[in-house]
């Protein structure tokens, strides 16, 4: 396992980071989730990412139980705040001071720790003054409940404003957590250049494009039983944008590239996002321990420039590059 600095900070994290968004507390049983976490630890993963909204707080609880007994100083535990949890009352969402201060305590309790290494704004909150949000984060850091602050799916302009306020308030905003893969490159034109300028790293989610880049979905063929594309709990909705024959045909053209590097298609996808020097980590999930071991093999892989070009040529115009897609992630209304 290779490790990278998070932003301009001194914190190092495993470049393959274990995330439990669509699995723990919902799609897999708790004992299997624990087995996956154990597999991650055995593979050298030290960084674990979750959020209070995942499985309506259950994902944090499962992760806390799975990491119980591990040396806390040897781990980097990340979580997030924004989306509604609990009974979804009028203040159970967003980035108000009230919601942040109450949410961090709930997350720490469920994770069975007195601090998280990174506390992230899960989305930008257009309904709360940014000054209020950043002051609350500053107080969370000063209280020792989080070491660093990050964000998820913020635009370049939102990042600039957040980093400026963070510096004025005396804490570090060090990371951005966007979707990023061979098929989804919307951060490349604006978010990544701004992040390099600001000393912010990317922790990217869905590097395998919800499993599409594993190559298991074939054009014109039935969906594999038990796959994410057949999951009615949310997985099918997330992956449907890629369930087109033109996309799946292009993805199949990557098979020779993976073979040339002696990688699986999933390993190629994870290795590809790690070629971007602004990416500190690729988030992987797992529904069984073998998936963890497979994806970890992407750590330390270098894809030659000529093969990076072949990947671009193979995927062609099915790649989404529109920078405006990041702004679309900012909620347009309150959830409660």
Automatic annotation (TrEMBL):
Q: Which domain of life is it from?
A: Bacteria
Q: Does the keyword NADP apply?
A: yes
Where in this chain does the record put each NADP-dependent oxidoreductase domain? 15-314
SUPFAM superfamilies the UniProt entry points to: NAD(P)-linked oxidoreductase (SSF51430)
Q: Which UniProt keywords apply?
A: NADP, Oxidoreductase
Q: Which residues form the signal peptide?
A: none
Q: Which InterPro entries match?
A: K_chnl_volt-dep_bsu_KCNAB-rel, NAD(P)_OxRdtase_dom_sf, NADP_OxRdtase_dom
Q: Which family does it belong to?
A: Belongs to the shaker potassium channel beta subunit family.
The protein's name is: Aldo/keto reductase family protein
Organism in which the protein naturally occurs: Nocardioides lentus
């Amino acid at each position: 396992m290779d490790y990278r600095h998070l932003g301009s900070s001194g914190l190092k994290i495993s470049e393959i980071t274990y995330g439990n968004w669509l699995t723990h507390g919902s799609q897999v049983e708790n004992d299997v989730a624990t087995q996956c976490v154990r597999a991650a630890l055995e593979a050298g993963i030290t960084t674990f990412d979750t959020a209070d909204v995942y499985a309506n707080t259950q994902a944090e609880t499962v992760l806390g139980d799975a990491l119980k007994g591990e040396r806390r100083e040897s781990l980097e535990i990340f979580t997030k705040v924004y989306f509604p949890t609990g009974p979804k009352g009028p203040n159970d969402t967003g980035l108000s001071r009230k919601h942040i201060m109450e949410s961090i305590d709930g997350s720490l309790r469920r994770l069975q720790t007195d601090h998280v290494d990174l506390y992230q704004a899960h989305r930008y909150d257009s309904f709360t003054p940014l000054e209020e949000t950043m002051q609350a984060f500053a107080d969370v850091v000063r209280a020792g409940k989080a070491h660093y602050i990050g964000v998820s799916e913020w635009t370049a302009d939102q990042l600039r404003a957040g980093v400026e306020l963070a510096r004025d308030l005396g804490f570090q905003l060090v990371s951005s957590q966007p979707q990023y893969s061979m098929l989804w490159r919307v951060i490349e034109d604006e978010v990544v250049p701004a992040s390099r300028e600001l000393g912010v790293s990317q922790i990217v989610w869905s590097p395998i494009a919800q499993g599409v880049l594993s190559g298991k979905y074939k054009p014109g063929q039935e969906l594999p039983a038990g796959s994410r594309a057949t999951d009615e709990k949310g997985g099918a909705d997330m992956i449907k944008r890629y369930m087109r024959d033109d996309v799946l045909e292009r993805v199949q053209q990557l098979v020779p590239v993976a073979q040339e590097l002696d990688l699986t298609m999933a390993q190629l996808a994870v290795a590809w996002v790690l070629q971007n020097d602004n990416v500190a980590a690729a988030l992987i999930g797992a529904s069984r321990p073998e998936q963890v071991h497979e994806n970890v093999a992407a750590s330390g892989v270098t894809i030659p420039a000529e093969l990076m070009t072949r990947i671009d040529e193979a995927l062609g115009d099915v790649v989404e590059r529109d920078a405006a897609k990041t702004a679309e992630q900012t909620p347009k209304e309150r959830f409660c």
